[in-house]
Amino acid sequence: MAITADDVSLEDIIPISLDFAVVEGELLSYFYFQTEELELRLPFGSHTRLFLSEVNRAWSGRSALGDVREDRHDLVRSSSHTPSNKAQILAMPQFGLRDNLIRCELLKNEDLYTYPEDFSFFLGTYNVNGQTPKESLHPWLSCTLNPPDMYCIGFQELDLSKEAFFFNDTPKELEWTKAVSEALHPDAKYALVKLVRLVGIMLIFYVKKEHAEFISDVEAETVGTGIMGRMGNKGAVAVRFRFHNSDICVVNSHLAAHIEEYERRNQDYKEICSRLQFRQLDPSQPPLTIMKHDVILWIGDLNYRISELDVSNVKELIGKKDFETLYSYDQLKRQINEEAVFVGFVEGDIAFQPTYKYDTGSDKWDTSEKCRVPAWCDRILWRGKNIVQQHYQSHMALKTSDHKPVSSLIKRVNPEAYKKTFEEIVRNIDKMENECIPSVTLSKREFHFKDVKYMQHHAQTLSLFNDGQVPCQFEFIQKPNEPTYCKPWLTANPPKGFIAQGGSVDIELEVFVNRSTAPELNSGKEQIEDILVLHLERGKDYFISVIGNYLPSCYGSSIHSLCQLREPIQDMSQETLREVVSAPINTEKPLDIPKELWMMVDHLFRNALKQEDIFQQPGLRSEFAEIRDCLDTGIPDSLPGSNHSVAEALLLFLDALPEPVVPYSFYQQCLEICSNASQCEKVISMLPQCHKNVFNYLAAFLRELLKNSASNRLDVNILATIFASLLLRSPTKQDLAEKRKTQEFFQHFLAQGSS
Fold it and tell me: PROSITE patterns under this entry (predicted)?
């Protein structure tokens, strides 16, 4: 799947002629971009607007005389409402400081031009366990007397096949979408606004056709929280949109499984909240996070279980319909009470029996060997004002899982009052004295980050107070001859913003060292040291110092360097590390393989050969930190953490190598001979000695894992897919065909009997 921009390839280049056109299609969901050669359907959202604005600019440039530029504003239409008066035009993003001031005043006077109006949202969640639709969804989706105004339908485990997992492609998307569209309430007509899917997690958003014109700013995003924080077998998909005057975000998530893994579920939730971000209309503005919405509707298979009760006790309480007592043992309820997750969210009273786990095709509890304890895995929560739940129920008529519909009240704009308030604010702004110079007070100007570690988040707060006579706009700006406003290991959040007169804002200065920044810091070529320039529009600049110390790590160090180090890396002086990196050969005999790699593989060999879902289920971030510290300091003597955490730590170690196990210089040759086993072995025999040792050591370990496939559920394809991308990394761009070749290459070494 496309995890980063590097995963997307350029297929073709189409010249833009003067007779091309961009038209909005009949459906709410798409633009149509037509030339004689092709027709593209582009989904609504800022990505499309950004693309079309670039196309428009290129098209405008085709005319040397400029005779076609007059029609440019008709060419590309935004997914927002078309500006119909001067006040609205003034409020568009390009007006910067003025726009932010108007927006601030509008929020203060919101009660003058808004009033609440009832709209109903049907929210449904259904883990379909990889099945195809075998029955009508009508009893679920049309269970309400009156047709809802909107549908937000979430699915999990849409497709459990390896093809869906590794290539994000499945025919079941169309099958389930068709089943949904055929089961919507018959007393209304609906338009499909958005469909977004990540592997088996899918969210479909429908709206009554009469409401479609009031939907704008539609964006969709996904985030995977599976192994290495990337794979999409677990994670979330989300849609955000503006409806009348309310910004709404709908999230469908599938969190980590297994009864004991509630901390992993908490971690998944936090990662989704921090990593899932929506680009704004104005590309210069920082992205919107989930929590920056008026209303958040969260659905999905959250996978929280019932703990401290055995299966017989749980079934006894269910038989008595004593759901209140049973709910007191619910992990999600307990985690919310402890404010570990979903702070500020509300869930309705649960008056239905647990929705997991039944024998497929029946209402019988799980009769398999594992005999799972029943649990309320499938949940619906919300956050925001003026929301009333009309019902919360499961639907036993559907035999795989359940859904839970919810209705809510949101605000609706009164357009005439809005216009009047808007124009009054604009007039007041015009009266402001332009001579007033903005100024701010900074909480401090020096920040020290102590003992920064690999992949460990460090943050400190910079507070700005507007002590001037006018509102101000701030931005961190680039220093001369530097490409960005800060070093790559540092970010300021938000990097720009608006502060009303007498107001304040907190900026998080965040330090995070990843695989791209670690090598230079490990070697001492780079230091935790930077100067930020905070610029006030029409005002002065402020200089902020950021310093710190980085603790070297085996993560982001080269195989060659680590083989020279017989002691833990943090026991070495900075001077020694510099010498190891710069010196081609050490006089002392190097280690055959890095000791850190040996510790992880040996731990897994002794403890995890039969571990179910090893290298497929993620570990805990907290345990990764303990494993990293153990490898870097030698304390304690043996690795801490679960088998899954050690397995993920191994994958992250390989991913962080500056030069992969198969060096970049051999990459092309490996692709060319990938189908010839003997040639593949010959290439590996030519690798530098320490790289060859590591490759052969890992391959031998993976072959041992495959001998226990009945227990660990691994096969050659899974291991080749996971490890080939880490051992044979492309020096530049890697397309899908290349990925398949690297897998074919590595599969030769996983066959039993390979040397």
Answer: RHOGAP
Q: Enumerate the β-bridge partners of residue 277.
A: 289
Burial class, 754, CB count within 10 angstroms (exposed 0-12 / middle 13-18 / buried 19+):
middle
Highest mean pLDDT: which range of 26-35, 404-413, 569-578: 569-578
Residue 538 pLDDT grade (very low, low, confident, very high; cuts 50, 70, 90): confident
pLDDT at position 665 is 95
Q: Which residue has the tokens 């290349």?
A: 738
Q: Are 615 and 708 in contact (CB under 8 A)?
A: no
Q: Residue 190 and residue 202: Cα distance in Å, rounded? A: 19
CB atoms within 10 A of CB 65: 6
Dist CA 197 CA 441 (whole Å): 45
DSSP 3-state of 733: coil
Residue 532 exposure: Cα atoms within 13 Å on the Cβ side? 30
Cα dihedral 729, 731, 733, 737 sign: negative
Residue by residue, DSSP assigns 503-532 as: -EEEEEEEE-B-TTTHHHHHHTSS-SEEEE
Name the pTM for this structure. Answer: 0.73
User: What does the alpha-carbon distance between residue 424 and residue 108 come to, in Å, rounded to a whole number?
Assistant: 13
The set of residues, in sequence order, having a beta carbon less than 8 Å from that of 597 and lying 6+ positions away, is 562, 650, 653, 694, 697
Distance between CA atoms of 224 and 545, rounded to whole angstroms? 35
By three-state DSSP, how is residue 566 classified? coil
The strand pair at 541-550 and 446-452 is best described as parallel
* Helices vs. strands in the chain: H and E counts, helices first: 24, 25
SS3 content of the chain, % helix, strand, coil (to 5): 35, 25, 45
Contact 350, 317 (CB under 8 A): no
SS3 (DSSP) at 2: coil
Provide DSSP, 535-557. EETTS-EEEEEEEEEE---STT-
Cβ atoms of residues 13 and 740 within 8 Å: no
Q: CA–CA separation, 339 vs 99, rounded Å?
A: 37
| Burial of 277 (C-beta count, 10 Å sphere; 0-12/13-18/19+) | middle
Lowest mean pLDDT among 56-65, 131-140, 504-513, 580-589: 56-65
> Taking a C-beta distance cutoff of 8 angstroms, is the pair 233, 165 a contact?
yes
Position 77 scores a pLDDT of 30
Tokens for 121, please give them: 């949202």
Asked if the model's pLDDT at residue 115 lies above 90, the reply is no
Transcribe 614-675 into DSSP letters.
TTTS---HHHHHHHHHHHHH--SSS--S-HHHHHHHHHHHHHH-SS-SS-GGGHHHHHHTTT
- β-pair partners for 150: 121, 207
Give the pairing of strands 440-442 and 39-43: unpaired
Percent of the chain topping pLDDT 90: 53
Q: Is the pLDDT of residue 585 over 80?
A: no
- CB of 153 closer than 8 Å to CB of 133: no
Coil, strand or helix at 228: helix
CA–CA separation, 724 and 249 (whole Å): 37
Between CA 197 and CA 201 the distance in angstroms is 6
CA-to-CA separations, 430 to 94, 97, 425, 706, in angstroms, rounded: 18, 13, 9, 73
Among candidates 101, 116, 185, which has minimal Cα distance to 151? 185
pLDDT interval class at 371 (50, 70, 90)? confident
Cα 155 to Cα 532: distance, rounded to the nearest angstrom: 45
Tokens of residue 333, six digits: 């309820």
